Amino acid sequence: MPSTTAEREAMPHGMPVHEVVLLAETDADTGLSGVVAGERLASLGPNRLPERRGPGRLRRMLAQFHNPLIYVLLGAAALTAALGETVDASVVLGVVLVNAIVGYMQEVRAERALDALEAMVRTEATVIRDGTAARITSDDLVPGDLVVLEEGDQVPADLRIVRTRELRVDESALTGESRPAHKDPLPVPHDTALADRANMAYSGTLVTTGGGRGVVVATGADTEIGHVHRLVGTTTTVQTPLTRKLTRFSKLLTVVILGLAVVTVVIGVLRGEPFAEMVTAAVALAVGAIPEGLPAAVTVTLAIGVARMARRNAVIRRLPAVETLGSTTIICTDKTGTLTANAMTVRQVVAGGQRWDVDGIGYSPLGDHPPAPEAVREVLLAGLACNDAHVVLQDDRWTAVGDPTEAALVVSALKAGLTAQDVPERVDELPFTSQRRFMATRHTGGVVYLKGAVERIFEFTGSTDHAAAEELAVRGLRVLAFAQAHVPEDSPLTEDALHGAVLLGLQAMHDPPRPEAVDAVRACQDAGIEVRMITGDHLGTARAIAAHFSLADDAVHARVSPEEKLRLVKQFQADGHVVAMTGDGVNDAPALRRADIGVAMGRGGTDVAKQAADMVLTDDNFSSIRAAVEEGRAVFDNLRKFIIWTLPTNMAEGLVILTAILLGTALPILPVQILWINMTTAVALGLTLAFEPREPNVMRRPPLPPSLPLLTGALVQRILLVSAVLLAGSFAVFHLHGGTLDQARTVAVNVFVAAQIAYLFNCRSLRDLRPHVGFRRNPWLPAGIAVTVALQLLFTYLPVMNTLFHTAPIGWRDWAAVVALAVVAYGVVEVEKWWRRSR
Ligand code: ATP
């Protein structure tokens, strides 16, 4: 906050526009020169918020210990130390440390993956430099830049407004006020509160209607949002409903296990066993039964899924979307640009009973074209005048700048030999909006050109003959009608003033379907997902295009306004659907927010839509939605695979101890050994499941209902089955072993680990037999197994390990038993799968 009078008076909202312009050494019409802008950028740095600083390294490391499970382990270490078992105590401590380091690294990795996403959805700004408008990335803005604001833009820096057109800005990100604030260039008193400074537009706020221009007065960390950012220091949460559910689940489990541990001690002591031994056993039970790897594995799996989606052009903005994507049952998609290429070419012009066919595809205006009759030229001129787009030759290709629909109209006019010189100067306009469905421009002398949806233009001209338009529409062409009116320059240009306009004719344009989108729609349908087309276009056109995608007529919703989109989302949700809905405009934001998966277009979409969305498509292409659904299902599969894989181990470890106490026999596996198993296998084996490629059939089965619990009855049964196998196997080898106690335990541990390796193969597919083996599809798997085997050999044969973990070298016969039991475990699960499938 400025304290001195001088500083306060230098605040831009208190100054008239010309002073601000003077102070910023810029020009209110032509902006900065490119040279000055470059110099300022070099000296002031990019217009970017400073790197988000998460918790410091030490803080983050310490946070790894803040976990009930770790408390249990630390308590266990203290108890063991008190009982004089210092080696065991230090092993437990060592394991706690390793666990913290692994957790730390996984967390950093996951966050880095998520942070990288933010950079993929960059905002751009329109800036006037040297008198011409250009799109640049917001990072390159400097103080003094003259920025053009349009509906749907995110304000890219702190701006002092110099010109407005019905400008309203949603400042809730900064002030919490949800009603959009009206903006106006007039100065306000110096002591006006931030929320009431009507002549300022602050970085990070959103233009909801209208437009305007402003001079940049602060960039990067100097902006108001930069101050807030510094104060608060954002925290990334990598939490989703699922991770929260799992955290709760592990807490509950911890309590249950602690209870069981106490029971163990009590039973043992009542049986006359030594207290110290019973405590050791209870510790073993506790550390064994708690699935310590679970929360980290979930985060990593989600992060990997997010990264995979990003590689396929679907950028996740809210992590829970990854989970929801897998259960999507209906996708409501735009037509233009998403299903079609949004590369418009006028094919036919209809005027005065004549038809003029237009050759060529794309935006090239070159080539030989038959001369256009006068009536046709009138229509083409209207299309050229009532237009904000143009075409340019870029790298030998003609490309559209602005709305492709309008660019097509420019091209058709150029093909007939018209040029910008033929258009009288524009005075004002009624801009196109999806609600209005038409646009009008007034030119010197009061001539007004109208263009828009046929029914809308016919309302003004009083025309009733739709035959020609219908005939073009059913061919899948987008038809626009053109009219001319006269509204004197001194009377306001309103919709009412346009009644009585004269119809000039029609232009019909072709927009080719995207071939890859045809496949993608079919893939979604095969996956049990309904696909619906939601378009602002004419029903006839929409149906003709839908037919290309084998979409039935009732999957087409035409002439839908943004409000109706919201209503559709609500209706589908009421019918029990999980809805993905695409959108790009400001008015789509409520529907995007309401949908279970709001999907915004990265190229054609407004910043407002992107902010409201859960996912942004960087290529605006329907096939990227399909990719995201596919990956979403794969993520969900992999999470379940990990859980299914990890729980039986924990359960069996707990059961081994409990059974030994109940039977009054020696422990087949010691607490430190249990810790060893959990720590090594969770990382080296379990995490490899997070990298599993999606199963070939992910898109050939119906969506999972969102209410479906992570563990279905069938999976719980499998967990019990595998636990029983592990329990029986380890008990058998322990008791049948003829060697020393240490050797018997070493064999039991190896049985556990070998069975976990075998079971990992079972878990690569939850349902299919002969899980699509092939190491190449997941190179982490053989690597993880190799590491595990090496670790087990060290554990068994290295003298230090023998001392630390109370192990002893074993012979080849023992290994044979280990491998045999692993094979049996694998077979049992596959038989169970087969039995379940055959039912
Ligand atoms: P979708 O992307 O869902 O297919 P759309 O692009 O067809 O929708 P809108 O952009 O809302 O939907 O356009 C609705 C109708 O308004 C179009 O069918 C067309 O008749 C008319 N229209 C489109 N663009 C313009 C424009 N720039 N000027 C005037 N009228 C337009």
From TrEMBL:
The chain crosses the membrane at residues 62-83, 89-105, 252-270, 282-307, 642-667, 673-691, 719-737, 743-761, 781-800, 812-829. GO terms for cellular component: plasma membrane. The keyword Transferase does not apply. Residues 11-85 form the Cation-transporting P-type ATPase N-terminal domain. Keywords: ATP-binding, Cell membrane, Hydrolase, Membrane, Metal-binding, Nucleotide-binding, Translocase, Transmembrane, Transmembrane helix. It catalyses: ATP + H2O = ADP + phosphate + H(+). It is found in: Cell membrane. Its EC number is 3.6.3.-. Pfam families: Cation_ATPase_C, Cation_ATPase_N, E1-E2_ATPase, Hydrolase. InterPro entries: ATPase_P-typ_cation-transptr_C, ATPase_P-typ_cation-transptr_N, ATPase_P-typ_cyto_dom_N, ATPase_P-typ_P_site, ATPase_P-typ_TM_dom_sf, ATPase_P-typ_transduc_dom_A_sf, ATPase_P-type_domA, Cation_transp_ATPase_P-type. It is a multi-pass membrane protein. Its main location: membrane. Signal peptide: none annotated. Belongs to the cation transport ATPase (P-type) (TC 3.A.3) family. Type IIA subfamily. This is Cation-transporting ATPase F. It comes from Saccharothrix ecbatanensis.
